[in-house]
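Hi there,

I know you've been waiting on this one. I reran it after we fixed the sequence typo, so this is the corrected version. Both the input and the resulting structure follow.
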Amino acid sequence: MRVATLNWARNSCAVKCLLFLLIGLFSLISFYKSVQHFQLINFETWPHGDEDFVGLDADDPRLIDYIRQHVIVPPSTEPYNLYYGINHNPSDGQAKVVDELFNHKRNGFYVESGGYTGEVLSNTLFFEIKRNWTGILIEPNPRNFEKLLSRKRKVHSAKACIGETKSADKVVFYNQKYIGKIFNPQDPKYPGESLDLSNAKCFPLYSFLLALGTTTVDYFSLDVESSEYKVLQSIPWDKIDIKTLSVEYNLIPEGMPALIDFMKSKGYIYYMKFIRPYTHDLIFVKPEVLDHTRVQYGELPILDVNNTISWMTRSNFES
């Protein structure tokens, strides 16, 4: 009797263990299926207390100090390390247009959001090298930011993004080789394979400028792969003086007409549109810039079929 009871207990224990193993296996398979398309890599663990900035208003002194101390990287003091050399202008035409509008102005200030590698398709490198401008390059993609730092740019930089709201935030960022954007798991456009996602800090543009001690921007290059309209909405236009902007328009869900209407409501002139293989930008200009430029009103630089700058007069100049 005792032997039978002991055998039954052993068999019962074995069955229970087998059931637990099967349940664990099925749970693991289910979990894998649920996350196989959203693989988190380059995902940083936040230092203790490092999330305290989340939710702080754009002009909160604690946030400004945090950005100064932990986010902004100072300009490099080492020689440039540019793949194409210092005489190459990698901009897709935007730098040429803005340079003409400012009459080849020296010692200006720029913000480039979507700094990429700091060289390829950079709209600001020309101003830094040829016109002695300063500014900040903002790029949240970890690998791109590492390349950006390796170029030894002589301006500030930040591994972060300009947020869509008026307060600081922490987001998940979708990284690709040439582009990156704030990740939305509900977006049907994401491919059906594992995604390169990373943790990213987002701060209002106003916060970056306060941390740098300025509220005047001569040129703002905004290329953030669909968040442009929301970023522009988050800007306190009564506190920041941005003279010219190039804004990527082709991916924003609000559409190009809404973008143009919004910028006009802020007092800007819709100056021109770029359509190139890698560029879909609108140029916006404050009237005061046109009042002082040597470019004749209604005379616009355009890109011809040979991808060079030419000049023509447009009768449908929009103001």
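Quick highlight: The chain has two domains: 1-35, 44-313.

Best,
R. S.
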